[in-house]
Design brief:
GO molecular function: NADH dehydrogenase (ubiquinone) activity; NADH dehydrogenase activity; ubiquinone binding
Membrane topology: Multi-pass membrane protein
Number of strands: 0
Catalytic activity: a ubiquinone + NADH + 5 H(+)(in) = a ubiquinol + NAD(+) + 4 H(+)(out)
EC number: 7.1.1.2
Distance between the termini: 33 Å
Strand content: under 5%
Shape: elongated
Oligomer: single chain
Helix content: over 70%
Protein name: NADH-ubiquinone oxidoreductase chain 4
Length: 239
Amino acid sequence: WLPKAHVEAPIAGSMVLAAVLLKLGGYGIIRMAPTNISTTLIYPMIAMATWGVIMTGLTCLRKTDLKALIAYSSVGHMGLVASATLIQTPWSTSGAVILMIAHGLTSSMLFCLANMLYERTNTRMLIAMRGMHKAMPLMTSYWLIASLTNLALPPTINLIGEIQIMTTLFNWSPLTIMMTAMGATITAIYSLQMFMTTQQGHLTKDSKETYPAQTRELLIMLLHALPILLLTLDLELIY
């Protein structure tokens, strides 16, 4: 139901759902998950969460709807958070909190960027949004920041959270490294594919009259990018 809720909701609803409500769910799992849960129950739940990371990534590779692509990407990242919170170790809980904060900023920024393109093209199809670098060159830098943080480029805060989660999952069961590594690789592929498709190429005939980014839009992007950069420089700001 989550991708449908993301796609059908207005932009404000998508941003609040990705940045706040999903994090309340993760916080609830951290607070309510029992510490004495049996191993036989943890194994299938973590297997489903990590397998979900791969399946949502593969779904993103074939999505033509930009908003649906970002929605499935959001679901995939929260699969890592869910698997980390089930282990209930200090290192995994710390990684889950870091990734939730990083994902809240990144996913909200991507949804806002997608809506800016939708307002100008009246479509969410990736093929109809190509060449936006020529129409809005300043927004390309924000697209680059959002895409690179979404794929956890070093030394962004997303990488720190994912590395902590992958480490705890590997220490808990070495088999999980195959799932998490494959999921991270697929995430990098579709994030770069999304950036290249929307920004590179020739403008479509309907997009040649696209108006440039407005001041309020640039301010919204700055308020997303600035916390990402500050947390990347000093992670202790979270605590």
